[in-house]
Design brief:
Chains A, B: It catalyses: O-phospho-L-serine + H2O = L-serine + phosphate; O-phospho-D-serine + H2O = D-serine + phosphate. Two copies of one chain form a homodimer. Chain A has 305 residues and is an alpha/beta fold. The first copy, chain A, contains 13 helices and seven strands.
Chain lengths: 305, 305
Amino acid sequence: MSDLPSWRDTQARQAIVDFVQRTTTTGSPEFVAAGDRIAVFDNDGTLWSEQPLYFQFLFALDRVRALAAQHPEWKTIEPYKWVIDNDMKSLVAAGEKGLLPIIAATHAGVTTEQFTDIVRDWLADARHPVTRRRYDAMVFKPMQELMVFLRANGYGTWIVSGGGQEFLRAWVEATYGIPPQQVIGSYAGLKYVTGDRPSIMKTEQPELVDDHAGKPVGIQRFLGRRPVMAFGNSDGDFEMLEWTTTGEGPRFGALLHHTDGEREFAYDRASMVGKLDRGLDEAAQRGWVVIDMARDWETVYPEAT
Amino acid sequence: MSDLPSWRDTQARQAIVDFVQRTTTTGSPEFVAAGDRIAVFDNDGTLWSEQPLYFQFLFALDRVRALAAQHPEWKTIEPYKWVIDNDMKSLVAAGEKGLLPIIAATHAGVTTEQFTDIVRDWLADARHPVTRRRYDAMVFKPMQELMVFLRANGYGTWIVSGGGQEFLRAWVEATYGIPPQQVIGSYAGLKYVTGDRPSIMKTEQPELVDDHAGKPVGIQRFLGRRPVMAFGNSDGDFEMLEWTTTGEGPRFGALLHHTDGEREFAYDRASMVGKLDRGLDEAAQRGWVVIDMARDWETVYPEAT
């Protein structure tokens, strides 16, 4: 129990600990060489919360508000005016596609170094609308412990997220102990700008949407091999778990089921954010572990600081 | 001397050893934390030979010949017919652009796993037209030793090559000790194919040309930070060395100058392959070390096996 103190002693915890033991014990028929021990983690809803909206989207809305003074024209142009007017109804109705201009306006046209500073400054000041916590204090303590446990057993821990790669890199090393080169996320273009002080600009050119079938593609692009373990929480992670668990040899897939409306948020099949439907239907037949937050976790968030 | 036995005791070797010592000695004013110690290496002409043509291009020509029986139409279609007729003059005249169909026909439409097997089978059988060696026996022993030396001092070693990412991954772990997730190369699209046996197909869609300004872009995409050391040999590596050595703190850039027509090949400013011109002009003012193969290396290739 000492390894995973925020996990209750249930089947989910036992399945994880057993798998790690079987794959790391020399002479075990399921032994996996140290270099092949790779565990991948979705981020939104798997390592931190994602309600009422993906936190990166809340960042983009805050960023529009911060930049509004420099863009007086936004007061009359959709979708920006909805943000300035706090018209959440129109924003939600526009859907992800209708809000792409907001992502472009808040994520491109700056250097990667400038963007990192912007994200870090935002994280330091912003508070979640429901919990009033810092967003990076809404990470899941049991998952932080799990990553430490896996690394102690020779597993490399990687993020494979639909969120933006550079957005994640700005904070995940401090929060999860995952260095920038182990962060796979969605990304748009990059452009090298030479001169006295060379830099790399973020552009609007879409390149990888690291969700659904984009997740195995991102994994192959960055890792060049199938992971051994995969953790997700939504149908956007389905293909990542499928790709991982259909490889030869021992494989492990798990879905975090958000069942805890008291300590976090309860949602699954009908949720607009982090919908989990097909995954729940097929987990048993595919041998995937379903982690039930209310049942399996003693603690959800770290103590507030 | 024991660390780098294939290097002569010249300024180039001394500059490398001094830099590693300054950046890894606790308390040194130029100490670099272990997690930030990243060294990047070009491959063609830096870690293995590249004359008379990039070896991956020779692979593609061999592959056209191997597939010709399945493609009778190739006998009359350019550029394939030039390969089948061994018309090197027309092939060279067509240039890289004219030969793109050959790259597509030999690198796409197969799964990543199939492609890996194809490359490995080719490497096992193919011989270099001049030396009659296996291609992976034309790697530079001093550079292999250098990578071992750097890793022993906590440096991560990464490949940043204009060559194809999946082509490189098929053999660089065995040859250089560099795992697939530390290989940045040029790449086209990948497509996840689900079903009974999920796989990832290589497509023809161009995505990254990891050469010139594409190298800093590839580095940011995969590493998410500036390297501390960079090794190249051609003007295609210029931006990679520039990006690396214009970062704050201690930085190291080196260019391998192919001066040894007896033991390898001698070429620089006028070469079609691996042209080194601007790099030679600017190395001194930029503080880049020029490694002179004839002068600085005791050994070039490993002993033939």
